Amino acid sequence: MGGDYVLDDLDLDLVAALQEAPRAPINALADAVGSSPSTVGRRLQRLHAERLLRVIGQLDWTLISDTHPRHVWITTAPGRLQDVARQLAELPEAQYVAMTTGRADVYCTVRPLRRESVKDLLTQRIPSVPGVASTQSDLVLKPFGRAEAWRVDRLDDAQRATLAPHRIAPQEVVEPQALSEQEREATRLLHADARLTSSDLSRALGVSQSTAHRLIAGLLERQVVRPRVEVEPALLGFHLEVTLSLSTEPGSTEAVGQVLGRHPSARYVSMVAGNATVIHQGVFRGEAHLADFLSGDLAALPGIRSVEVSVVLDVLRRYWITRTGTRLGQVHFPFDPR
Q: What does the alpha-carbon distance between residue 74 and residue 84 come to, in Å, rounded to a whole number?
């Protein structure tokens, strides 16, 4: 199928149902969206085959590295923007890479694999990419909102109730536990496909189905893997993506971050140490929607000193998945889980 793909109402309802319960079986998804299991199965298969949707596993930060992510803002030499962005999208540490206007030409989020590699990544490897003129980075201190919590608002209470038995109830984990060899391999597979069944995992690892079931249940309950839907927001009607850099009063940072983390636009909100104190990655249906947010919701928050808006032109990589327009590319496994 060439050209741009437009999701119809059933596709959109299916995306919303998967966001609510990413591992819900086909029968439950069909009940929730009011269609037949065969139709829903075909739709899901088609969306996957067209590279428009994946259910992947978001991974525990402590398994990715022993340090926190950085937001990196990059100014490029004239005419080098696209080349620089493509090269940065190939870095194994690059979680998110986008071409932007505003604060910088390229905005990316990187997760160094080891604390001792941070200096080399930020002062040598990124600045030495041909075409990079200057860089500036902000250290992520803690998240207020993550992308797996973002929802397209299409489900009513009855539909959510249908999916409720299939939502994953996370357990409180005080201390991260080291993974066994089987758990590491299962984590790799669930990162690429979080709807993997125990039968699938059993065949892939050469273990019994009961062992595969225990592996999946344990990794999900401990939040080693958190299933999330990957689909470009533009396909869901959100055609404008921005990153806001906010400077806040010292006593207001936590409150501002908490409110923004709950905002419907929020894809990823974090407290940072750098030129800004809060970074808000958000998606909006269009310019009017963004204008209402800036002049209404944001303006009503006390404690904000200044706001700088960077408008995303194109996303090349999001959560370690390469992108071409609305099409999803290869899922990269970013680390060797400990």
A: 9
- Non-local CB neighbours of 126 within 8 Å, separated by 6+ positions: 72, 74, 88, 91, 110, 132, 135
Q: What are phi and psi of 232, to 5 degrees?
A: -65, 130
Instruction: Output b/e per residue, 76-90; b: 16+ Cβ within 10 A.
Output: beeebbbebbebbbe
Q: Minimal CA–CA distance to 22: which of 227, 304, 259?
A: 227
Q: Can you give the pLDDT at residue 174?
A: 54
DSSP H or E segment with residue 318: strand 304-318
Residue closest to 288 by CA, chosen among 240, 245, 243, 246? 240
Whole-model pTM: value is: 0.90
Give the alpha-carbon dihedral of 75, 81, 83, 84, to 10 degrees: 20
Cβ-contact 196, 189 below 8 angstroms: yes
Question: What pairing do the DSSP bridges indicate for beta strands 266-273 and 304-318?
Answer: unpaired
CA distance linking residue 251 with residue 270, whole number of Å: 16
Residues 6+ apart with CB under 8 A from 309: 102, 242, 243, 244, 294
| pLDDT, tens digit (0-9, with 9 covering 90-100), for 172-211 | 655 667 888 999 999 999 999 999 999 999 999 999 999 9
State the pLDDT at residue 244.
96
Cα atoms found within 13 Å of the Cα of residue 215, Cβ hemisphere only: 29
Residues of the chain with pLDDT under 50: 1-3
- Read off the pLDDT of residues 19-28 as tens digits, 9 standing for 90 and up: 999 999 999 9
Q: Which among 193, 198, 203 is positioned nearest to 22, based on CA atoms?
A: 193
Q: Which of 190, 240, 232, 252 is nearest to 215 (CA)?
A: 190
